[in-house]
Amino acid sequence: MSIDVFLVDDHRLFLSGVKAELSEEFRIVGSAHDVDTAIAEIRGYDPDVVLVDVHMPDGGGIAVIESVGETNPGVKFLALSVSDQAEDVIAMIRAGARGYVTKTIEPPDLADAVRRIHAGDAVFSPRLAGFVLDAFAGAIPSDQDPELDQLTAREKDVLRLIARGFAYKQVARKLEISIKTVETHVSSVLRKLQLSNRHELARWASKRHIV
Amino acid sequence: MFSSFDLSRRQSDRIIAGVAGGVADELGVSDSYVRAAFLSLLTVWGLGGLLYLAVWLMTYDRVEDGDKEKVELPRALGLGIAFAGLMLLLASLGLWPNAALVLTATALAFGTAALTDTSRPGPFAALLDPDVERTSRMRVFIGIALLVGGLATFTSSVGRVFEFGVVFLAVVLTGLGIFIAFGPWVRRLLADLASERSERIRQEERAELAAHLHDSVLQTLALIQRSDDPARMAILARHQEAELREWLFGAAPLDGVDLVSTALKTAAARVEADHQLPVEVVTVGDHPIDEAGRALVGAASEAMVNAAKHSGAPRLSLYFEADEEKMSVYVTDQGKGFRLEEIERDRKGIAQSIRARVERAGGTVDIASASGEGTEVILTMPVSRA
C-alpha cells in the first residue's frame, strides 16, 4: 500500500524539488502553497502524511495542522522548515505535528521520516532534539503531573544522541536497546512535548528568539 | 595699481565698505594686510582715511552672486577698538605724525593682520598643529614679533612723555581689540576640536559596523556564492537575516557578552565555507564565553576541520550542551573512522593539539572512533564560576 503524501509550502521551487524527490516512493496526491488552499485540499484528499512548512502567510503551518486536525484526525503532519526559531517549531509540535526536520535533510532521510510518521512514530531531527532538551532542562517545576513535565534519564540519552547526529538505528546500538525502544522513547517525548503544561516550555520558547 | 579698471568694492567679507577687500582681491594678497596698510597710513596725517575715501568714491560695489554678505562684526569691532586706542594715543601725544608713532602703529597693525589672517591657519593651529606648513608658522612668529616690537617702540620712544593712565588705557584697548580680533580663531579652534572628536566617534562606529558586516554578512554571502544547494542557501540567508536583525534591533546576548554557542556557530559556518561541508549545529543551554570557552571553541574548530579533511563524511554534527557544572561539545561524523594506532601523522598531530588545548584549560578530550563507523570527538570543560 503506497502512502499518500500532500505537500504544503509557500516556496514553489522547494515544493517541486520535494515532489520530485518523494514521487518515486510515495503517491503525491497534491500540493498547496497557501494556508487556505492547503486546508481545503487536505480535507478533500485525506492523505496519510502532510509535509507542512512552518512559516507561511496567514497563520503558517500551525493553522493548517489545527484546522485539519479537527476534521481529519487521521492525517499525520511532519513539519519541514528552514526555520531556526525554537518557539515556532515547538508550537508546531504542540499543535499536533509528529515530527520536525529541517529542509537540509537528505532525500533518503526525508523518505524515511515520511515512512516513520506514517507508521505512527515521531521524527526528531537533531535540532528538534536540541530544542526539547533545552525546553526540559533545569529545575523540575512543582506541577500536578510531574511525569509529563520532565524527561527520564533514558529519554535524555536518546535525545542527546539524536542531537549529535545519530540515526535511530545508531542510537539503539549505542544504548544497547532495540530500535523499537528508541521509537518508544521518542514517541513518549513527543507526547510530553504535546501534553506537558510545564510552564517553562512557554517561557523558554518566548525568551529564545533566535536559536 | 588703482588704475586698474576692475577695482571694485567687495560686498562679502567686508568691514566698512569693502574697499580694502577689493584692493586685496585685485592685488592678490590677504585683505588683512591691506587693512593694516590703510590703518598705518592713517597715522600719517590721516592719509589712510583719505585714501580709503578716494578709492571708495572711485569704485563701485561688486555684483556678486554670493550669498554671504555678512560683515565680520567682532573682527571689525576689534580692529576698530584697536584703532581707537591708537587714536587716543595720538591725541594725548599731540605728536602727529611722529616717526616712532607711525612705526609703532604700522608694526601693531601688520602684526595683528598677520595673526588674524582668516585665509590661513590661525595662530594656535600654526603653532600647535604639526601639519601646518612652515610659512604659516613663520608668519605667526613675524606677527608676534611685530606686535611686541611695536609695543616696545611705543614705550621706549613715546611712552615716557605722558602719564601712565593713558598708556595703560591704550595698551588695554589695543589688547582688547586684538583679543576680539582673535576671538574667531579661538572659536574655530574649539569647533575644530569638537568636530574632530565627533568624526572620530563616527569612524569608530563605522569600523565596528564594517567589522561586524565582514564577520557575518560578507561571510554568509561568500558561503552562498560557494553553495549550489538552494535549500542551504536559504538556510544561510535566513540564519543571517535573523542574526543581523538581532544585531540591529535586539539586545546583545547576555548584555553584550559573547556566548559559547554563538562562537561555535561562527566556527561551524567557517568550516562549512572552507570545506564545502554542511555542519549541523545543535546547542542546548549556553554560557558566556571565557578562557575555557575560547579553548573549547578553538578545539571544536580544529576537530571540525580535522573531520572535514579526513572523515569523508557528507556532513558533520556539532552538539553543544552546557549546564551549571560543565560544557560539552560533540563533534560527530559518520565517515570512515580510524583506529588510533593507524592514523596519519597529520591527523594525529591535530588530535594532540586539540587535547593539549583543552587540557591546558582544565578540560578533557575523548575520541571515539572505529573503522567504518565514523568518529566522535568529545570535549568536556568544567564551568568556571564568576
Question: How would you portray this structure in words?
Answer:
The complex is a heterodimer of chains A (211) and B (386). Chain A is 55% helix and 13% strand. Chain A has two domains: 120 residues, 3-Layer(aba) Sandwich (Rossmann fold), CATH 3.40.50.2300; 89 residues, Orthogonal Bundle (Arc Repressor Mutant, subunit A). Chain A is globular, with a radius of gyration of 17 Å. Chain A is built from eleven helices and six strands. The mean pLDDT of chain A is 83. The longest helix of chain A is centred in the C-terminal third of the chain and has 17 residues. A six-stranded parallel β-sheet of chain A has the order 2-1-3-4-5-6, sandwiched between helices. Chain A is an alpha/beta fold and 211 residues long. Chain B is of the alpha/beta class and 386 residues long. Chain B folds into two domains: 194 residues, no CATH class; 127 residues, 2-Layer Sandwich (Heat Shock Protein 90), CATH 3.30.565.10. Chain B has twelve helices and seven strands. In chain B, the strands form two sheets. Chain B has a five-stranded mixed β-sheet with strand order 3-4-5-7-6, covered by helices on one side. In chain B, helix 2 runs antiparallel to helix 5 and helix 4 runs antiparallel to helix 8. The longest helix of chain B has 63 residues. The radius of gyration of chain B is 39 Å and the shape is rod-shaped. The N terminus of chain B is likely disordered. At the A-B interface, helix 1 and helix 6 of A face helix 9, strand 3 and strand 4 of B.
